[in-house]
Amino acid sequence: MRKMKNLPIQFVQTRGERDVFLKEGGGSDELPKWVTDAAIERNASVMRASFQVLEQEFDRRVERNESDLPILAVATLHEKATAKSYRGNVRQIFDNKNKRNVIGMSKQREIIVKIDSKADLQRISSNYNADKISTLGKVKRCGVAAVVGLDLFHAQVEDNLIGHPLKVRLVDYLDGQLNEKSEQQFLQVCRECQLEVRKVEYARGVRMFSVSSGHNQDNIHRIATMDSVISVKKMPYIELSISPEPYNTELDVKQPVVGEHYPLVGLLDSGIADIPHLSPWIQGGNQNIANFDENDLNFRHGTAVAGILNYGDELEQSEWTGCSPMKIVSCIVNTTPDNAMVQEIEMIEHIRSAIEANPNVRVWNLSQGSTFEVKDDSFSDFAMALDDMQKAYNVLFCKSAGNIDRAKPNEDRITLGADSVLSLVVGSIADRFEAEGDVPVGQRSPFSRKGPGPECLVKPDLVHFGGNRHAKIHSFTEVGYQCNVLSGTSFSTPRVSSLAANLAQRIDKDFDSTLIKALLVHGASYLNTEGLDNISLLNEQGYGLPTNLNAMLNNDSDEFTMIWQPSLDMGDAQIQDIPFPSSMVGDDGLYYGEIIVTVVTDPILKSGEGTEYCQSDVEVLLQTYDDILYMPLNAIGTPRYYRNSDRLVNPQNILAKGNYSEGSKRSAEWEERTLIETAYKYQPVKKFHVNLEKMTPRPRENFLSANKRWCLSVKALYRDAVVTERDYDGVVEHTRATIIITIRDPKHRGVAYSECLASLNQHNFVHSNLEIRQRIDIENENG
């Protein structure tokens, strides 16, 4: 029999300076093995030839009286020089004392460099003079070895652009005057080509323009060869998918109780029909944000999504979410493609207008997207725009992962916008099997797109029930009938939106998207893992299917959940003596139990940094240790780089994968790419689930003896662009994180919760119940 979950999870505060761990230096000042005399000579020869080409380009411009904007070049990095630790060496080659010439990234190993003049070029090239190479210091030697090529930058230009509206992006020079000058030159060229153009706000650092479709090949060439243009692409359209057909059944109408405070969700869709089941819950009527003509409106898609938002469990006669109904702010931003086509640039404007018109809405459902797949080497403009709005307005988007086009079954990767770092992206799994062609229950629906996103980003984040090939899910049509012919990620997404909006309403504190996301991910699990390894599971289902609302917010006596939100402004955190139940020790004298750790960050994002768009990371270690050793600072015998006196003795991270399988050992020498691809580095959402009894014998014996103490170590890491911005411009940004830890007793002794609570008090942690508002009432029309 399942235990009742009625014990509140705990918010735990760090204990001020006691738990702060100042950042320390370290590492070796020895040059890496790939920095050899031969490599330096080879690179120098290649670069000297490149400098001659760039010098000729400056001369050509003077002769033809062309642009006085800087030349853009692409520096290609050595395959082992992509880590942040080497970026400073590269900057030593290109940057001037008070001027940044390295202005962004193009692809994984390519950085964008601006060169203002021949004098600037000569200063850079002086590092490569044959008589100077041998006298370079270690820093510049590493920089010369790191840059293996330098070429003129050429804009990325898509094929078959004639007849399509264009999306043109200009480079961000990180210089206001240069940005203004380049914009004026671009607008002048568009006027001369008689093209309509307008600037649209996407995200900070993204300089984007929409250009009309009345262009020819000469116009495109002229635009694409301008100094400041970095890409010319077709303007994508944002589409709704799946329209239901009616099938009549009865369902009680819910009515809001006057004076009751309900969760609130924003619906960015096609509008909601005025039907009895939904009209009482629409706050303020449909807002025609897109300003469509009345004849172009089509409420089918929005009505079906709204039905799942407020009647999802009742329609399926199952408690899939356990959510109460919500007030819905319906913003019309799209319609069927037969009525009107909405460009990406227009959709971004519509979404921004909807948010600004409804500042009280924090959770927004976005069940639509494009048909273009994401790429490995760049985040989409649409995704960056969604991220920018979430940061600017403190909102959370629940975004559909996208549906596979039956005509293109091999194109099954998530679409543009679903690579949004901050959004909760939702895929679909099957809830039942009806006929041949359906996938088994709990597996990815045949139509649901999969990840990963760029830079190995885990997307989708979550899944929910959205139908099967034959087995469909239920909602309403615009004429009030219930239908059962729906399938798509459009209809799995509102279940997660409902959970997010209900969490935001039930938790009695200011809206915090990292907390909402962390609770949803922390309680998620997989229904069916048959035939899938861990990577395939993450790509197809993210972190799984969220549990229902009550289970997210409460514990039973055999588990204890803590929420930590450590401040990382002063430094890292080393939180000693976090609780672990003293009775959870087996007959062998070793700790046992399941531990789940979820980390969700609000990372620093830089749109000009290519695959390094996510510029901050939070590394979490759950460690056992023997004792604390006091080391006096600045004393003989204490390493000079120490900044913290209290040192853990024999710390071991029990979350490390290498402790649980012989074949996945890690070392300090792991390359940056390996860490990103396999160790969650620079991921905004991370989740670990370990069973201590499955730890391999040697680490289990060494790390889990009953006399061990427990520590939570949290480290903030920042990439080069953030560090450089701080050093050059004095801009200081910090990342935020929510960390949730659950300790669970599989032997059900019934004391895990009480022992952990007592341990928090014993070690002077200030903690409090996660304050929950009471569930709210509704009235049924027939009740």
How is the secondary structure organized here?
Elements: E1 7-8, E2 10-12, E3 20-21, H1 37-64, E4 71-77, H2 84-94, E5 102-107, E6 110-115, H3 118-125, H4 138-146, E7 147-152, E8 156-157, E9 166-170, H5 176-192, E10 197-201, E11 207-211, H6 217-224, E12 229-234, E13 237-238, E14 254-256, E15 264-269, H7 300-316, E16 327-332, E17 342-343, H8 344-357, E18 363-366, H9 381-393, E19 396-400, E20 424-429, E21 462-465, E22 473-476, E23 482-486, H10 489-506, H11 513-522, H12 534-541, H13 549-553, E24 554-555, E25 559-564, E26 572-576, E27 594-602, E28 616-625, E29 627-630, E30 646-649, E31 652-653, H14 672-678, E32 685-691, H15 697-703, E33 709-718, H16 720-729, E34 736-744, H17 752-762, E35 767-769, E36 778-780
Parallel strand pairs: 2-25, 8-12, 15-16, 15-18, 18-19, 19-20, 20-21
Antiparallel strand pairs: 1-24, 2-35, 3-26, 4-6, 4-7, 5-6, 9-11, 9-12, 10-11, 13-17, 14-36, 22-23, 25-34, 26-33, 27-32, 27-34, 28-31, 28-33, 29-30
Task: Describe, in plain words, how this protein is organized in 3D.
Helix content is 26%, strand content 22%. It starts with 6 loop residues before the first strand and ends with a strand. 47% of the residues are buried. The protein is of the alpha+beta class and 783 residues long. The longest helix is centred in the first third of the chain and has 28 residues, at 37-64. Helix 7 (300-316) links the parallel strand 15 and strand 16 (327-332). The protein has four domains: 7-27 and 556-769, no CATH class; 37-152, no CATH class; 156-238, Phospho-2-dehydro-3-deoxyheptonate aldolase, domain 1 (Alpha-Beta Plaits, 2-Layer Sandwich), CATH 3.30.70.1140; 254-550, Rossmann fold (3-Layer(aba) Sandwich), CATH 3.40.50.200. The strands form ten sheets. It has a six-stranded mixed β-sheet. A six-stranded parallel β-sheet has the order 16-15-18-19-20-21. A five-stranded antiparallel β-sheet has the order 3-26-33-28-31.
